[in-house]
Design brief:
It contains 40 helices and 14 strands. It has about 900 residues and is an alpha/beta fold. Helix 22 packs across helix 24 (about 575-590), helix 32 (about 740-760) packs parallel to helix 34 (about 785-800) and helix 36 runs parallel beside helix 38. The relative contact order is 0.06.
């Protein structure tokens, strides 16, 4: 059940956007009302089903449309096998390709459905390269509100002023519901949508900023995540709701105030029991719902005009047959008055309407308050708090339900029936009593239940969980509850880890990512003073796939180093757990903003542990990661020697390790072994081209098909096939976008698609790719991406007359981060830009810097470019003999590697 405050209803579902009279994409015009598709003015003959499918996909361009929706749209009121959908989609793709084969229009989103990925003319420019992970975390469904229209309008007006609005009031008054309703009302003013940050799921103020970053779609590993949030809000015009700030108010206030001071009209709503007390805050104190203050006898029709009574009646009806009558109206008005119109308290009371008559409920409420003992018995209820209402509801619970409520407070967010089962014994409940208690808590609205993906998910409201945690802190089962919770999370993580090795990556991540707060809580307890270090090690090891799939490498590194420290005391000898931890640590160091000096030693350490443990699988992972580190720090030949040595000593057949062979081929390109790399990549492409999705995607950090396309497309450009290279690079990016995997996206763009688009002179595509890479780098702050993005932003500007400083900044960022591969090549591009601008001294300085690279001999692939640039500079200085000599060397160097593009550039 979806819990609501200030109301009990919600929208029945999202309504499709109305069809436009015309859609334009590529060389096509789609006219839905005329049932007509035109290509360059000529009709394209589509079947009726195919036309219906295309219309729905185009009308929701950029969104994933599920298979069920497509079937329901094209075959209404019919039972149709999914194979019919596949056949019609394949037919539709073929017919579109026959007229415009260079453009991909419909992408398959594995396990989800299909998405129209081409740019619609007249759209906002956010096209096929959009990353689903970049979308903000939206709020819950819009609740039905009672009596809040005027207040919502007032707060909406305040959002037009500089600063932010805090909706303050007691717990349960309806602050969250009101904020969500305001966001829906102002949807047209915020085209970027609404980002919803629920701080109730965290206990530690240090997690406030990560929660903000996650909700907006900014990297958990960003050095300054708040700056990333600010940039997203500035660019996308997104409304930000920061919910339940009271328990982390200092940190929440600092973050929100910084955003508001940087973007005065950002559009921010905070909710808290008390004001945040910052200089940019506009506070609106939210009172309870209006109820009849005059206790004279009312008729039902009169009382129903008050929002508090409307809410009570709506909630009571949801528990069973209930009617507001002249006979029960006095009792209901009395109940609403006793709780002073607090929405949650009204809902809690009305949730018992199926058990008590209104008069009995009114009497029970009065008796329950006397039992609290929180002040004089004659004190009016308006001097009580939501805690009093919760305390009353809690004291009405049978012992088994009260115990279970306390136990369930250990969960940070949603949990399953199996999760609850794992806690029963901590409270001395048997399975039957525990399951019955859970059902009763749901019926009494102490626990909410929602159906998701065919299973029931449970959740405690923030105020209820907070109250129950206070009760648990003084209960005899407290320590047992925390241990059982950690044990359950260990079991859940182990199951997730097993599924990770067999399930497709994207469905796995959608299923498991929501438990990260519970993982944090369990690990925090395990490594705490009253915890269990061995449990902490087990939890950390099993959580590695989740952190890696989330690309939360900074958070992972902190936990891994704790686990490694504890593991040495618990089990000094090398275990498989140690191997996993050391490899995870090395990856976290490698994918940091800047490569640390200890990164190389971390990879050597991980390889040593994997060898001692005798695991070929993890030796391969360690050798693979070490090769990545060596290759991208400018040492491709060392990387090749390491891979080849491992292959020889282990007897590894490269065909049995496609990820490793793909990396070997990629590094061969940098070492100038283009022919060998080409043979490997062609065979890999033939063997793996049709792969839809893979389990354990982050095991080798990239989707295999994306990686093959990335490496092969750059190789094709070097060997003189720019058209094929461009097409393959864009296909790799499209696939990475469909997977929504940031590491795959960032590498495909930075190492293939963006450089190829720029080098082939397609500046429009290059600009689009550069913007996407910049967006991705705010989510996963890896210096090779941000530096490459900045360099090409400058290069594109330089092609239009400016941007040299940005190119220099990009190169400096790459160098500072330790990502030296390709830097010499980029310096050549910068030097040529200086030469075209007439600055000979800067051009020669760039060449000198490229030649000073200590690893330049290992990067043979770019030697022709360095020699070509030396020829250009010599000619510009009038040294024509030197120019001819350097040019001839450049041609010979390129020809010896079969680098056709570089040879052609050298001959110009």
């Amino acid at each position: 059940m979806q819990e609501t405050r200030d109301g009990g209803g919600k929208d029945a579902g999202s309504r499709p956007a109305p069809l436009r009279s015309e859609y334009r994409f590529g060389s096509f015009r789609l006219l839905p009302e005329r049932q007509l598709l035109l290509h360059q003015g000529e009709p394209v003959h589509l079947g009726g089903r195919a036309f219906d499918l295309l219309t729905l996909l185009v009308s929701r361009a950029g969104d994933v449309v599920s298979k069920a929706e497509l079937v329901a749209h094209a075959w209404p009121d019919c039972f149709v096998h999914m194979d019919n959908l596949k056949v019609n989609i394949a037919t539709l793709r073929r017919q579109l390709a026959e007229h415009d084969g260079d453009t991909a229009y419909i992408a398959t989103i594995a396990g989800r459905g299909y998405k129209f990925v081409a740019r619609l003319d007249g759209a906002d420019g956010w096209d096929a390269l959009r990353n689903d992970r970049q979308q903000p975390a939206g709020p819950p469904d819009v609740p039905q509100l009672y009596g809040r229209d005027e207040v919502a309008g007032m707060i909406a007006q305040k959002l037009d002023r500089p600063g932010y609005v805090t909706i303050a009031g007691p717990g349960g008054v309806g602050k969250t519901s009101l904020a969500i309703a305001i966001a829906e009302r102002m949807r047209g003013q915020f085209p970027g949508g609404t980002a919803f940050v629920d701080l109730s799921t965290i206990d530690d103020p240090r997690f406030v900023v990560p929660a903000l970053a996650t909700a907006v779609g900014v990297s958990l590993g960003l050095e300054d995540p708040v700056a990333g949030v600010i940039e997203v809000l500035r660019q996308n015009r997104t409304l930000l709701i920061v919910d339940n700030c009271e328990h982390v108010s200092a940190m929440a206030a600092a973050a929100v105030d910084r955003i508001a001071s940087t973007i005065p009209l950002a559009g921010i709503i905070a909710t808290s029991r008390a004001p945040l007390r910052t200089r940019h805050e506009h506070v609106h104190f939210l009172a309870g719902l209006a109820y009849p203050e005059d206790q004279r006898q009312l008729r039902a029709a009169e009382a129903h005009g008050f929002p508090a009574v409307q809410l009570f009646v709506a909630r009571a009806k949801s528990t069973g047959a209930f009617q507001l009558t002249d006979d029960n109206v006095d009792s209901i008005v009395s109940i609403c008055a006793r709780v002073e119109g607090l929405a949650l308290a009204i809902e809690l009371a009305a949730g018992n309407a199926a058990i008590f008559t209104p008069s009995a409920l009114d009497t029970a409420l009065q008796q329950g308050l006397h039992m609290l003992g929180r002040g004089p018995r004659h004190a009016p209820l308006r001097h009580q708090t939501l805690e009093a209402a919760l305390d009353w509801s809690y004291r009405l619970l049978p012992e088994s339900e009260a115990v279970l409520l306390r136990l369930l407070s250990v969960f940070a967010g949603r949990f399953t029936a199996d999760d609850a089962d794992a806690l029963f014994s901590a409270g001395c409940l048997d399975a039957l009593a525990g399951r019955d208690a859970l059902a009763q808590l749901v019926a009494k609205s102490m626990v909410s239940a929602e159906s998701e993906d065919g299973s029931i998910q449970y959740r405690l409201a923030e105020s209820t969980r907070s109250y129950a945690r206070q009760r648990l802190a003084a209960a005899p089962e407290r320590d047992r509850a925390k241990r059982h919770f950690a044990s359950r999370m260990r079991e859940w993580l182990r199951q997730a880890e097993q599924a990770w090795s067999t399930d497709s990556s994207q469905p796995w991540l959608r299923k498991h990512r929501g438990r990260i707060d519970d993982v944090r809580a369990a690990i925090g307890w395990a490594f705490g003073t009253e915890g269990d270090p061995q449990m902490g090690v087990d939890l950390t090891v099993s959580a590695l796939p989740l952190w890696q799939e989330l690309s939360a490498f900074k958070e992972m590194l902190t936990a891994v180093e704790l686990a490694l420290g504890a593991g040495q005391d618990l089990a000094p000898e090398t275990t498989l757990a140690t191997v996993k931890l050391t490899i995870a640590r090395a990856w976290a160091l490698t994918l940091a903003l800047r490569l640390r000096p200890e990164t190389g030693a971390a990879w050597s350490d991980s390889l040593l542990h994997a060898s001692v443990a005798g695991s070929i699988e993890f030796q391969l992972r360690a050798v693979w990661g070490q090769a990545v580190h060596l290759a991208y720090t400018g040492r491709p030949r060392e990387a090749l020697r390491g891979l080849e040595r491992f292959g020889a000593t282990s007897g590894l057949e490269w065909s049995a390790a496609p990820d490793a062979e793909r990396l070997l081929a990629h590094i061969e390109v940098y070492a100038g072994r283009l022919s060998s790399a080409s043979r490997r990549l062609e065979l890999l492409s033939e063997a793996w081209q049709g792969l839809e999705d893979r389990p354990g995607l982050s095991r080798f950090q990239m989707d295999l098909c994306v990686a093959i396309g990335m490496s092969r497309s750059f190789l094709l450009w070097l060997m003189g096939e720019p058209d094929r290279a461009s097409q393959m690079a864009m296909a790799a990016v499209s696939r990475a976008n469909g997977l929504g995997h940031l590491i795959s996206q960032g590498n495909a763009i930075s190492l293939a698609a963006l450089p190829i688009a720029y080098l082939t002179g397609n500046l429009e595509t290059a600009s689009r790719l550069q913007r996407q890479l910049a967006d991705i780098s705010t989510q996963e702050n890896i210096s090779v991406w941000s530096g490459t993005s900045q360099f090409f932003a400058g290069a594109i500007e330089a092609a239009r007359g400016e941007g040299l400083a940005r190119m220099q900044d990009g190169i400096e960022e790459l160098t500072r981060g330790g990502w030296l591969t390709r830097v010499a090549f980029y310096r050549c591009i910068l030097a040529e830009a200086f030469l075209q601008a007439g600055d000979m001294d800067q051009a020669e300085h760039c060449l000198a810097q490229a030649l000073s690279n200590r690893c330049l001999r290992q990067e043979r692939w770019c030697h022709p470019e360095i020699l070509r640039l030396a020829a250009l500079l010599s000619a510009s200085r009038g040294r024509h003999a030197d120019a001819e000599r350097f040019s001839a060397k450049a041609v010979r160097s390129a020809r010896s590697m079969q680098a056709g593009s570089l040879e052609l550039r050298a001959r110009r």
